[in-house]
Amino acid sequence: MGALGVVVGGATGGRGGGDGGGAAGHFPTAGAVAFPSADVRGRVVVLDPGHNGGNGAAAAQIARLVDAGGFQKECDTVGASTDDGYPEHAFTFDVANRAAALLRARGVTVVLTRTDDAGIGPCVDVRGRAAAEAHADLAVSIHADGGPPEGSGFHVIAPAHAPGAVNPGIVEPSARLAVRLRDTFAAATAEPPADYLRSQNGVVERSDLGGLNLSSAPKVFIECANMRNQADAARVTDPAWRQRAAEGIAAGILHFLAER
Ligand SMILES: [Zn+2]
Q1: Which of 82, 86, 100, 171 is the most exposed place for a label (fewest CB within 10 A)?
Q2: How many angstroms is it from 2 CA to the middle of ligand 1?
Q3: What sequence ranges are listed for the domain MurNAc-LAA (predicted)?
């Protein structure tokens, strides 16, 4: 809603159709994404980089069951990886830190659910409650999917009403956050919405994720790409693409904050 302010991202035009076009040729070319000029100093955001580098060697620890909002689920999982072995935990940690830097530059207080990429967890219940713990305005959990190799694209997951969810009041604002993030992420990266899901518009609602069910602040997950897809794998392993992904995430968050 606020006037458009700073524009970040240097890739303004000149990027060929080879990157980001994919199956959806109508999709816009990646470029600069607008940050709103609203004063967001002092607002608090939780960024939750999915998985962790130590999970793979701690099978028993991450398999223990924790509350996921009315049912139990594994503490955490190892996550996906590209066929060449670039792990999701490294991707999410890098993008989260890039997005955190962009938000902190605007005066936002950013709390990360993990501050290194060599630990175990935290469990999904801790991740879910992190926004309440930090008295945050919102939280975004950053992931990359391990979908079917022939499928590509990104999607945002918003909370559906779940029996054990701690705050049904987050469903509506989280849906708005999801749309914001979808639009800014698409604009920043030119990544098309995932083509391998029932929903083709880049937003899905789920009630099976403890990380969403246990949040008392608006929260979404973003699955930035499908790591098992060759074209998406080339994107997630490119630091310049990860920077654009971070810009897209930060812009969506800033727009949401500016409207509240
Ligand atoms: Zn994940």
Answers
A1: 86
A2: 33
A3: 128-254
* Domain span holding position 208: 4-258
Reduce the DSSP state of residue 159 to 3 states and report it: strand
CATH classification of the domain holding 180: 3.40.630.40
Neighbouring residues of the ion ligand 1, judged by CB less than 5 Å: 50, 79, 143
In which element (H, E) is residue 214 found? none
CA of 87 to the centre of ligand 1 (A): 10
Active site residue 205: no
Which one of 133, 172, 191, 223 is the catalytic residue?
223
Task: State the Cα–Cα distance between residues 10 and 204, nearest whole angstrom.
Answer: 31
Beta strands (DSSP E) in the chain are 4-8, 33-36, 44-49, 65-67, 72-74, 109-112, 138-145, 155-159, 203-206, 219-226
CA atoms within 13 A on the CB side of 16: 1
Computed on alpha carbons and rounded to an integer, the radius of gyration of the chain in Å comes to 17
Whole-number Å distance, alpha carbon 148 to ligand 1 midpoint, is 14
